[in-house]
């Protein structure tokens, strides 16, 4: 580490007292250059493939993020092992315990992943980064849906029978991805700590304290982003969870056809999310893109509810809109809160999203049992409509307060450089 510091800062430690030029590190080892950030991005993406606030000061928060990410990954691994063991011994309660532990680690890991993204890419390619993370997550979901069944069949052939033992061994094999996620977490923690020292990231520390009461200081713009998040995803994930039977009953699809169309949202989002991320980075206008995504999603649900048009049209539109919204919505959190509150903000957003999904999933099941799929689609359309109202409100609030949510990444980076130069003067 000392040699790396001298390579970046020069033999004199960077105080300007020596005439010897600094010896540059290779691009992939230099945290200030793009190849190294791409390496970090790859690790961040694979970190979420398998699967908040603290009262310490800013420097400790950076270290806690690295340590926390490792701990959360360990929770994921332990939860998966317990889940698999529950299947092996045919103990459903043990499987529930495993999923509970897995959920603690998995959701917290998503918060750490978002915070890493902002720390390394804010003001640069942030929308693209969130798109790539979503893309990798969707690839993971697609791999899980298509590979785990094949693994189960191979284990069944090996054991010569089906049952809970076959399921348990299959889940243990699937847990290999969790170990891979843990390895990525360890490498990320090291690289983040290394970059902190090499780039002297703590020179501008504020000494501000992070506490749960930060929530009451969240701006109206941030609360509107939370509302958009909860109402939008409430009309996507629960619908996909119930969608297979919907397509079988309304459109007389076979089970295989229904599974194919139900998964098209994730299949589309895998390649389209990075494309939309680049687009939003170049053009800016995050709120406008979110508005387009919400309107498209609303149109998709209306088509599914009130027409018998080919449902592939509506589901493809939903896949495109879902990809666009994730690229434009999640990075906006970093634009409306100070850096020391990022973990709190993303953690709170993740928490209320999951709470909303849990409540909506229960409500959706009750509506389906008592009223049928037409009323369920009307319910999902109402959720998206609430999200649409929140987007329109966010647009006007941002305009009236002189917010920067519609800036492009290029303009944002330019203004940040100007502000940094003025601070040095």
Automatic annotation (TrEMBL):
Record-level GO cellular component terms: lysosomal membrane
Keyword Secreted: no
CDD domains referenced in this protein's UniProt entry, alphabetically: MFS_MFSD1
Catalytic activity: L-lysyl-L-alpha-amino acid(out) = L-lysyl-L-alpha-amino acid(in); L-aspartyl-L-lysine(out) = L-aspartyl-L-lysine(in); L-lysyl-glycine(out) = L-lysyl-glycine(in); L-alpha-aminoacyl-L-histidine(out) = L-alpha-aminoacyl-L-histidine(in)
Predominant place of localization: membrane
GO MF, one example: transmembrane transporter activity
Transmembrane segments: 38-55, 67-94, 165-191, 220-240, 260-280, 287-306, 312-336, 348-368, 374-397
Domain of life: Eukaryota
Pfam families, alphabetized: MFS_1
Subcellular location: Lysosome membrane
Subunit: Homodimer. Interacts with lysosomal protein GLMP (via lumenal domain); the interaction starts while both proteins are still in the endoplasmic reticulum and is required for stabilization of MFSD1 in lysosomes but has no direct effect on its targeting to lysosomes or transporter activity.
Annotated family: Belongs to the major facilitator superfamily.
Annotated protein name in UniProt: Lysosomal dipeptide transporter MFSD1
Native source species: Gallus gallus
Top-level taxonomy: Eukaryota, Metazoa, Chordata, Craniata, Vertebrata
Gene for this chain: MFSD1
């Amino acid at each position: 580490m000392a040699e790396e510091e001298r390579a970046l800062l020069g033999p004199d430690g960077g105080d300007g007292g020596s005439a010897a030029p600094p010896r540059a590190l290779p691009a992939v080892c230099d945290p200030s250059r793009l190849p190294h950030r791409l390496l970090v991005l790859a690790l961040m993406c694979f970190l979420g493939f398998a699967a908040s606030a603290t009262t310490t000061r800013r420097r400790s928060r950076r270290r806690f993020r690295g340590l926390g990410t490792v701990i959360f990954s360990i929770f994921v691994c332990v939860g998966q092992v317990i889940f698999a063991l529950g299947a092996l011994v045919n103990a459903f309660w043990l499987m529930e315990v495993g999923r509970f532990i897995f959920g603690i680690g998995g959701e917290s890991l998503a918060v750490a992943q978002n915070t890493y993204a902002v720390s390394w890419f804010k003001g640069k390619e942030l929308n693209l980064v969130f798109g790539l993370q979503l893309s990798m997550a969707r690839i993971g979901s697609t791999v899980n849906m298509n590979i785990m069944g094949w693994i189960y069949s191979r284990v069944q052939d090996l054991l010569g029978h089906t049952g809970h033992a076959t399921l348990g061994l299959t889940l243990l094999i699937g847990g290999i991805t969790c170990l891979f996620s843990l390895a990525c977490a360890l490498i990320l923690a090291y690289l983040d700590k290394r970059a902190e020292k090499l780039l002297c990231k703590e020179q501008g520390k504020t000494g501000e304290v992070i506490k749960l009461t930060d929530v009451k200081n969240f701006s109206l713009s941030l609360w509107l982003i939370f509302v958009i998040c909860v109402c939008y995803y409430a009309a996507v994930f629960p619908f996909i969870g119930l969608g297979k039977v919907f397509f079988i009953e309304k459109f007389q699809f076979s089970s295989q056809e229904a599974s194919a169309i139900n998964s098209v949202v994730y299949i589309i989002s895998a390649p389209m999310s990075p494309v939309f991320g680049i687009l939003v980075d170049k053009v800016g206008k995050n709120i406008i893109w979110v508005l387009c995504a919400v309107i498209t999603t609303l149109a998709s649900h209306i088509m599914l509810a009130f027409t018998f048009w080919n449902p592939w049209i509506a589901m493809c539109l939903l896949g495109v809109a879902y990809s666009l919204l994730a690229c434009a919505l999640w990075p906006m959190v970093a634009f409306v809160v100070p850096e020391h509150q990022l973990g709190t903000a993303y953690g709170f957003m993740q928490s209320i999203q999951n709470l909303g999904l849990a409540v909506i999933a229960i409500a959706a099941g009750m509506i389906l049992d008592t009223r049928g799929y037409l009323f369920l689609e009307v319910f999902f359309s109402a959720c998206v409509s609430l999200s649409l109202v929140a987007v329109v409100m966010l647009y006007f609030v941002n305009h009236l307060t002189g917010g920067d949510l519609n800036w492009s990444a290029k303009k944002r980076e330019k203004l940040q450089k100007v502000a940094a130069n003025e601070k040095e003067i």
